[in-house]
Specification:
Elements (H helix, E strand, L loop, with lengths): L2 H14 L2 H25 L2 H20 L3 H28 L3 H20 L14 H12 L1
Helix pairs in contact: 1-2, 2-3, 2-5, 3-4, 4-5
C-alpha cells in the first residue's frame, strides 16, 4: 500500500474512533508520517519530506492539546514534555535534513504505542483465586500432566 493510501486509511479510521483509540491511531499516524519523511529524505524529495514532517508535528500538537494536565497530573506533564521534545526533533530533522532525529522521534513513539494499545483494551475481571498451599498447587499440576 502506498504511503498516501496508508495516510488516507488512517484518517478515515481516526474519524470513526473514540476515546483512547484516537490516541493510539494518532501515534500510528505520527509513526507513518515519520516513515514517509525518512523515505522522502532518502529520495531527496524536499516537498514530500517537509509535508510528512509537518504532518507528524501537527499530530504531536494534537496529542499535546488533548492532554488533560489537571486530571493527568505528573504523567500528563511528562507526556507534554515528551511531545514537545519530539516536535523539537522533527524541527531539527527538517532544518538539518537529517535522519537521526527522525529515528529518535520514531523510536520514542514506537516505545509508547504498546502502552496506549494496552490502555485501550477492555478490562476483564478474573475471579479471585483461593490461596492454596504450595504442595496442593504442585499436586494439581502433576495430576494435570500425568
Amino acid at each position: 500500500m502506498s504511503t498516501h493510501a496508508q495516510l488516507a486509511y488512517r484518517e478515515a479510521e481516526l474519524l470513526q474512533a473514540e476515546g483512547l483509540k484516537i490516541v493510539e491511531l494518532l501515534y500510528e499516524a505520527a509513526i507513518d508520517a515519520i516513515d514517509a519523511a525518512r523515505q522522502a529524505l532518502a529520495k531527496g524529495d524536499i516537498a514530500a519530506r517537509t509535508q510528512a514532517i509537518n504532518r507528524a508535528y501537527d499530530i504531536l500538537a494534537e496529542l499535546l492539546f488533548g492532554l488533560n494536565q489537571e486530571a493527568g497530573g505528573e504523567i500528563a506533564r511528562r507526556l507534554a514534555a515528551l511531545y514537545v521534545y519530539i516536535q523539537g526533533l522533527l524541527l531539527r530533522a527538517q532544518a538539518e535534513q537529517s535522519e537521526s532525529p527522525l529515528l529518535e522521534a520514531r523510536s520514542l513513539l514506537v516505545t509508547l504505542l504498546p502502552a496506549w494499545r494496552q490502555a485501550n483494551q477492555p478490562i476483564v475481571a478474573t475471579p479471585p483465586q483461593e490461596d492454596l498451599p504450595v504442595n496442593e498447587l504442585i499436586g494439581a499440576r502433576v495430576d494435570c500432566v500425568g
